[in-house]
Amino acid sequence: MSSSSPTDDHLKQEQQAVALAEVEEAEQLSAQQPHSAEKALGTDISIARDRNRKASLITFLWGLPGFVWLGFFLVAPVVFIILVSFWTRTDSGFIKEWTLSNYGDIFHSHTYWMSMWKSFLTSIISVAACLVFGFPVAYFLVMKIENQRNQIALFIFALAPFWTSFLIRAVAWTYPVAGREGAINQALGGLGIISDPISALGFSELSVRVALIQLYILFMVTPLFFMLSQVDRSSLEAARDLGGNGFRVFKEVILPQTMPGVVIGSIFIFVLTMGEYGSVRVIGGGNVQSVGTLVQNRISAIQYPQGAASAVLLIAALIVGVFAITRFANLREEL
Amino acid sequence: MSEGITSTGGAAAAAPPTPNRSGLDLINLTKAFPGGTLAVDDVNLHVDHGEYVVLLGPSGCGKTTTLRMIGGHEFPTSGQILLDGQSLVELPPYKRPTTTVFQHFALFPHRSVVENVEFGLKMTGVSKEERRKKALETLQMVGLETLAERKPRQLSGGQQQRVALARVLVTNPKALLLDEPLGDLDRLLQLKMRVELRNLQRQLGLMFIHVTHNQEESLSMADRIVVMNDARIQQVDDPLTIATRPRNEHVARFMGDNNIIRGTVSEAQGSRLVITDANGVKVSVQAGNDDQRAVGAAANIAVRAAAVTVGGGAAGDINSIDTEIVFVEYLGDLVKLHLVAGGERFLAKVPGDQYPTLRGKEGDTVRICWKEEDVQLLAD
C-alpha cells in the first residue's frame, strides 16, 4: 500500500478532479472502483499483474477506447482552456501572445471573488442540506422497507422528478412555486400565516439555494441508498447486543460504513452546484451571480481569455474542494 | 407430546419456577409470527450458571428464535424470560446482561480487530486506555493479540470466530448466546473449535447457550441438550441419555442411527412388555413406571445401531431378526451394515476391527440381535 508513490496518487487525484469539473461523473465512478480495489488488496495484486503481462496488455487494449475518448473530449479541451487563459484578448477573440494579465484582472476583481465566495457558500449549503435531508430518505428506504420489491419501487418513485429535464424543474421553481403568485405564497397566505406575499422566495439567492437542493438531492440519496444496502444487518444487531442504543449504532456502525457514499454524493453535489450556471440563471433571474454565470458572461462578451482564466480558477477550486472531501473520508475511515 | 415441554425430562415439570432462583428461566415462552405460525410454542427451560446447554433441532424448529428472544432480538408473544429472577422481556438487547455470537460473526468491517473487541466497552463508557488494555487481554485469551490491528476481512474464518468471541467476552456477560457458531467453519476447524470453545466455557464458568443443527456437535459439547422440533421441546437431557434413551420417535430419528420398530404390545408381564410388529418381529422392553401399556396398545421402540450384535441368537427368538445385508459402509473405526428384513430397513454398527471376522458381504443373510436393556420404549 505504501509502495504506491505520492506523486502518482496526486496525479490521479488531479485527473479525477478535472474529470469532475467537466461533469464526467459516470466515467469518474467507474474509474474509482478499480482504483480503490487495488489499494485494498495491496501488493498481492501488483505482483500478480507483473507476472502476467499478457493480461495487462489485454487490459490496456480494453481501456484504450476510453483513454482516447477522454483524451479527445476531456483532456484536450481543458489544456486548450488553460492555454487560452494565458493568451491576449483582442476585440474579435484572442491572439497567441503570452500574458498573465487575464489572471491579474481577476485577482483585482471584487465581483469575481464575491461570485466565487457565493458559489462556494451555495455549494457547501447544498452539500450539507442534501446530506441532512437525503440520509433519512435513503435510511428509510433501506432499513425500514422490509419488502425488497417495495423498496426498489419506492426508490424509482423517488427518482421520478429526474424523468423530466432539470431545466423544466428549474423553471417550475420560478413563478409556479416560489414567485409572488406561486404555490408557496398562495399556501402561506391561504393559511393566514402571511398577509403579504414573500418576494424573497423568487429570483433570489434563497430561491436558488432551495431549488439546487431539490435539483441535486438524489445525487446524495442514490449513493447512500446503495451503501446502506450493503451494510450487514447482523452487524447492527451485534452493535445493539453489545450495548449500543439507536444513536450509537448509527454513529459507530452505520455512518462509518456509509462514509464512501457520503463522500461520493458530496463530490457530485459540490462539483455540480459550484459550477452551476443554467439553473442559477433561470431561478435567479439575473439577480444572482455565480462563477458559472460570470464565465458565461465573459464568453458572451467575447472576453475569451478572461473567461478561460475564470474557468481555470474554478477548476482549481473544484480540485481543492474534491481533494478536501476525500481527505475527510479517509480521516473518518481511520477513526 | 405435551409432556415434551417439561424442563428436565419430566421430574422438574411439576415444580413451578421460583421467582428468585439463580440462572436463566424460560417460562411458557411462545412466539407467533404474523400470519399465526408458531415459531416457539410454550417452551419451559431452566439453565444454571456455568452450564453449557445446546439447543438442537432441524432448521425451522424454533431454536434460533428462542435464542433471539433470550438476547432481545425477537420479542415473545407471551411467556417470561427470567435471569436470576429478573425479567428480561422488557429490556432492549443493549440493556440485557446477555451477549450473542452471531451466525456469520457479524464483525464490524470498518474497525480493526482490537476496535471490534473494544466496541462493547466503548458503548458502556469505559475510558480509552482501560478498554484498549482489556481488549488486548481478551484477544490474548483467544490467541489473537498479534493480529489486533488487522481488519476482519484480512482474517481467516477461524480467526474471525475468535474475534467474535473476544468481542462478547470482554463485556463480561452473564450468559453467552451462540447462534450456529461453528457453521461457517470447515470441518477440521469445527472439530478444533469445539474443544476450544468448551475449554473456554469451563475456564470462565459461564452459562453458554448454543444453537446448532449438528447432532455430533451437540453431543460433544453440551452438558445438556435440548432437542426441539415443530416449535416445541422434545427432550432435555445429558448427551448420553439423548444418544441412548431418546424419548420419542422424533428424537430417535433426528439423532440418527436408531432402529425404530413400530408394533403393538403382545404380552405384558409386570413392567416387561413384549412388542410384536407387522412382520412378527418380537422385541422385549422394560417400560418405565409412568409408561405402562396394556396388551394391544400401540408401542414403538428404538434400538441404537451400535447396540446391535451381528451373529448369535436363535431363529424366532425375541430381540433377534434374520436380515439380508444390502450395503456395507466402511467408515474406518466402524462399519455400518445396512440390512433389510420383511421390507423394513435396519442398521448395525460393527467395530471396524471386528469386521474382517464377520465377513459380511452384500447379499448375505445374517442374524442380528440386541439386549433387552438396549431397547428404548418411545413416547407417543
Provide structural commentary.
- The complex is a heterodimer of chains A (335) and B (380).
- With 335 residues, chain A is an all-alpha fold.
- Chain A folds into two domains: 1-85, no CATH class; 107-334, MetI-like (MetI-like fold, Orthogonal Bundle).
- In chain A, 78% of the residues lie in helices and 2% in strands.
- Chain A contains 15 helices and two strands.
- A two-stranded antiparallel ribbon of chain A has the order 1-2.
- In chain A, helix 1 (6-21) crosses helix 15 (304-334), helix 8 packs parallel to helix 13 and helix 14 (291-300) packs antiparallel against helix 15.
- The longest helix of chain A is centred in the middle third of the chain and has 35 residues, at 110-144.
- The two termini of chain A are 19 Å apart.
- In chain A, 34% of the residues are buried.
- The model of chain A is unreliable at 1-40 (pLDDT under 50).
- By secondary structure, chain B is of the alpha+beta class.
- Chain B folds into two domains: 2-97 and 173-244, Rossmann fold (3-Layer(aba) Sandwich); 259-378, Nucleic acid-binding proteins (OB fold (Dihydrolipoamide Acetyltransferase, E2P), Beta Barrel), CATH 2.40.50.140.
- Residues 1-15 of chain B have low confidence and may be disordered.
- In chain B, strand 9 and strand 10 (232-237) form a beta hairpin.
- The termini of chain B are close together.
- Chain B is 23% helix and 33% strand.
- Chain B has nine helices and 20 strands.
- Chain B has a six-stranded mixed β-sheet, with helices on both faces. Chain B has a five-stranded antiparallel β-sheet with strand order 13-12-11-14-20. Chain B has a five-stranded antiparallel β-sheet with strand order 15-19-16-17-18, with no helix packed on it.
- Chain B has helices at residues 63-71, 113-123, 128-141, 157-169, 187-204, 215-221, 239-244, 249-255, 355-358; strands spanning 24-32, 38-47, 52-56, 78-83, 86-87, 98-101, 175-179, 207-212, 224-229, 232-237, 258-269, 272-277, 282-286, 298-304, 309-310, 320-330, 334-341, 344-351, 365-369, 375-378.
- In chain B, helix 2 crosses helix 3 (128-141) and helix 3 crosses helix 4.
- The relative contact order of chain B is 0.12.
- The A-B interface holds A 232, 234-235, 237-245, 248, 252-253, 256-257, 333 and B 71-73, 92-94, 99-100, 102-104, 106-111, 119-120, 122-124, 167-168, 171.
